[in-house]
Amino acid sequence: MNKATAVSPANIAFIKYWGKKDSKLNIPFNDSLSMNLSECSTTSTVVFDESLKDDFVDINGKNIEGDKKQRVVDILDVVRKIARTRVKARVKSENNFPTAAGIASSASAFSALALAASWAAGLRLSNREISIVARLGSGSACRSVVDGFGYWKRGKDNRTSYAVPLALVDYWQLRDIVAVVSKESKKASSTEGHEAATTSPYFKTRLTMLPKRIKLMKGAFLARDFSTFGQLLEEEAVDLHVMAMTSKPPIFYWNEGTVQVMKSLRKWREEGLEAYYTMDAGANVHIMCLAKDEKEINKRLKKLSGVEFTIVNRPARGTRLV
Ligand code: DP6
After folding, report:
1. Is the pLDDT of residue 185 over 90?
2. Which of 114, 220, 306, 319 satisfies CB 3.0 to 4.6 Å to 260 for a cystine?
3. Distance of CA 119 to the CA centre of its chain
4. Which of 26-30, 33-37, 249-253 has the lowest mean pLDDT?
């Protein structure tokens, strides 16, 4: 078999990866924690074909060239090196959600690619190894490999930086409702954001604060303490954006819709409806709530003028073959 198809979810980070200790290997400064998203996935098919003179990459029906293609070819090269082959490949990748709108399409894409390419090349890698290959494509991709809720141990080198499952899909019936406030591609990529991160005067402060926050967040998660979890979630999200806004050059990801959702959630909480926000490197807001409140919150979100549409996600399994 020289062909394989894999499907993989995007994930939303509760504790964020922001800033790289090693930008070639995507080794982060800190551990991070995330949930896989059931309705935001990438399906990737890889075929190694002796007759090809070059690699071909098709994303969402478009033939890709340049830097974007190179990023995929780099991962094919990693896989070819392990499999000791030089055969070129055809990659076809399809997202079921808007690319580059703040939902981490690179996470689902590179995790799906890591599994599909390695399997198609005849390798039978462990989850840990797939997580490592995925990380080389995009850091956050390493967390999509494991089921449910992923914990990325920053590690200190290529072999020690990968994700492990913190809890499986059914551990906690959390929902992540993505409020899409902008379908346009964001202007600064997360890769640029990572580069700028260390120039923020708050970067060091954050690193000092993080071990305690991670411990509290893990504790709240494992105890299913939603109020504590939510408060930490929002603190962490705001910290990431404060760093982005104060880096050189500064990056502003939010728009009016983002702020409208943040304010609305605060109001709804005062009324007794509990939900909390987080944002990745984009304007869209991820609203975390308990399954019992999903319908009411989704209904209210859809009524906000700044919200174009919503996507309701359950915790999902990690990368798998189809
Ligand atoms: C804000 O994983 O997209 O979503 O490694 O350069 O591909 P690269 O970056 P990427 O960064 C994700 C940043 C984030 C936070 C997170 O998902 O942890």
Report:
1. no
2. 306
3. 22
4. 249-253
